[in-house]
Design goal:
Distance between the termini: 33 Å
Order of helices and strands: EHEHEEEEHEHEH
CATH superfamily: Peptidase C15, pyroglutamyl peptidase I-like
CATH topology: Aminopeptidase
Helix content: 25-40%
Radius of gyration: 16 Å
Strand order of the largest sheet: 2-1-3-8-4-7
CATH class: Alpha Beta
Structural class: alpha/beta
Number of strands: 8
CATH architecture: 3-Layer(aba) Sandwich
Oligomer: single chain
Length: 209
């Protein structure tokens, strides 16, 4: 791995239920074609829609890549915009996954806080991406839905002390194509990285004085 480059990991989910093609994985594959610029090594993964798989995969991604940022992408049948999720929640996981399993405790991390916020200011990312004239509507949400999306996000936020993000996309062609969603992810993640850079510069300046 080239150390001058930053690692960014982006995940989508496998098909589940009515989503025989999962728009999140289509969007992530489109993003992979576009890339995040020459300074970023982009690693993409398709995540099984299984609680136990998430519990082993998410920590292994952090360990393997030491990424500057991990962005999980999921599909929402109710979404009509690309939606930035502000936080992940620990409790209330009752939905059965693709292997007909759900956590007995109905929570992600026993003893973990009820809710963890991302360090990224999603309102600000939303404003900037919207102002860039992307042609894809972006919105912000505080509820990632208490299924595998929320479970994955919380697990990632817990491990990374908030250096994770979650983006919900609508199903393909309702109204956006896979290419549109890929472009939207590219713009959103580049904005998130810019934001992390600005925050780090600020911290660095404070230490210098």
């Amino acid at each position: 791995m080239d150390n001058s480059k930053r690692n960014v990991v982006v995940t989508g989910f496998e098909p589940f239920g009515a989503h025989t093609i999962n728009a999140s994985w289509v969007a992530v594959q489109e993003l992979k074609k576009l890339g995040l610029g020459k300074d970023v090594d982009l690693h993409v993964y398709e995540v099984p829609v299984e609680y136990q798989a998430v519990q082993s995969l998410v920590p292994s991604l952090w360990k393997q890549y030491h990424p500057q940022l991990v962005v999980h992408v999921g599909v929402s049948g109710m979404a009509t915009t690309v939606t930035l999720e502000k936080c992940g929640r620990n409790l209330g996981y009752k939905g059965l996954d693709n292997s007909r399993f759900c956590p007995h405790s109905q929570c992600c991390i026993e003893g973990g806080p009820d809710c963890i916020d991302s360090v990224i200011d999603m309102e600000s990312v939303c404003k900037r991406v919207t102002a860039s004239g992307l042609g894809v509507a972006v919105s912000v949400s505080k509820d990632a839905g208490r299924y595998l999306c929320d479970f994955t996000y919380y697990t990632s936020l817990y491990l990374s002390h908030g250096r994770s993000a979650f983006v919900h996309v609508p199903p393909i062609a309702k109204p956006y194509s896979g290419e549109d969603l890929g472009r939207a992810l590219q713009a959103i993640i580049q904005e998130m990285l810019n934001m992390l850079d600005r925050a780090e510069e600020k911290i660095h300046c404070q230490h210098v004085h």
